[in-house]
Amino acid sequence: MALGPAVISLPRLFLLLAVVAILLTGSRWEKRLGVSLEKPLWLSLLAGLLAARLGYVVGHLADFRDAPWEALYFWQDGYLPWVGALVTASVAGWFVLRGKYAAKPLFVPLLIGLVIWSGGNWVYHALRQATSKPLPALVLSDLQGRPVQLDDFRGKPVVFNLWASWCPPCRREMPVLERGQQESPDVHFVFVNQGEGPNAVRSYLAAEQLTLDNVLLDLGEETGRYFRAPGLPTTLFFDADGMLTDTHIGELSRARLGDYPRTRRAPQEQSLQ
Question: What predicted TM-score, i.e. pTM, was given to this entire model?
């Protein structure tokens, strides 16, 4: 979903709606009981958020080893929802056990938020599976001006990145995708630039010292329209038959890239390097 120049994925939007619903429901309980619930609700939510992020980082320590400060990049995807939900409920329960708050005014708002968040995500994933698209037979050009037909990449899994050099999150994630391409020779990484000419793309790649295969130019932004990309960057994942299996809106971290099938090396392969 695009909000002006900002792009927010639907799962994040559902999370935002869930938080708003929790606070609004808590406010109604406050008026009814004459007791402020702002502190326990906010602390429960913040504790859950931190725990969900920490749980994810602990499960991906190898990915954060070289850049541990990236664990603090809370704007990136990378959370364990069940850990967050468990800690949120535990902190709320702690407030109840202290005797200052009743259980119902705390847990009803949290339950409503959980229903909105989990239900919204279920609908999102169901719709995404129902609207899977194949790699199109569109013909784009590479940096040398040679025609390349997109569905020719079938035969291997494909990571299909829509990007532009003026897009800050695109620039930040490029080294991650470059490394992913180097580590996954059995996956096609395809970088489809949106709306820029070959000189601009070459200049950017040279300035950033990026070595990328399969850099294509889409001056008319046809691929973005075909896949209804809400903004940049958008990364699409295809199976070897060329069918869309997953979509990531926004910046990809190394850990999140590895969460998608066939983009992470097997443990024995990693140990050899």
Answer: 0.78
